[in-house]
Amino acid sequence: MGAPGSFYWAGTVKVLNLTDNTYFKLNVTIGAFMSDSVVLLRARPVITVVSSIFLPASINITAPQCHDGQQPVNCLNVTACFSFHGRHVPGEIGLNYVLTADVAKKEKSQLPRVYFVLHGESVGQVSEKLHLVHMEETCHHYAAHVKVVQEEQ
């Protein structure tokens, strides 16, 4: 019979669909020789999320087009679009995302020049939860303002 544990690697791997899911039907069961137990690893779908952010090619900082309530400011429209696809994926999913304005400045511990305007408030980040439908693009639109820093004036 051999030393204890000598049959450790003498196991079985068999592809079964024990849960009747449609995710490629690749549930895997793993058991060891002379063992009273088995492990079931259920397969799950792989979802590919496609994201796109649309910004203007340039911003004219010499001619402000918006107002922040007190003074004219430069502004731009930001559009964030998302969709998902994959084989045997659910028809709809929830997606949480965060948009951060002027990341390069924040990474250098500098004050950002761009901020989003949500409900009349200036914010550096936008956190949203979307409901996405398979193969359908969903877009959200945001207004952003550009602060003029002293060396630009």
UniProtKB/TrEMBL annotation:
One GO MF term: integrin binding
Phylogenetic classification of the source organism: Eukaryota, Metazoa, Chordata, Craniata, Vertebrata
Main location: membrane
Keywords, in A-Z order: Glycoprotein, Integrin, Membrane
Protein's membrane topology: Single-pass type I membrane protein
Subcellular location: Membrane
One of the Pfam families matching this protein, by short name: Integrin_A_Ig_1
Name of the protein described by the UniProt record: Integrin subunit alpha 9
BP GO annotations: cell adhesion mediated by integrin; cell-cell adhesion; cell-matrix adhesion; integrin-mediated signaling pathway
InterPro entries listed in its UniProt record: Integrin_alpha_Ig-like_1, Integrin_dom_sf
TM stretches of this protein: none
Keyword Protein transport applies: no
Integrin alpha first immunoglubulin-like domain ranges (all copies): 43-147
Single GO cellular component term: external side of plasma membrane
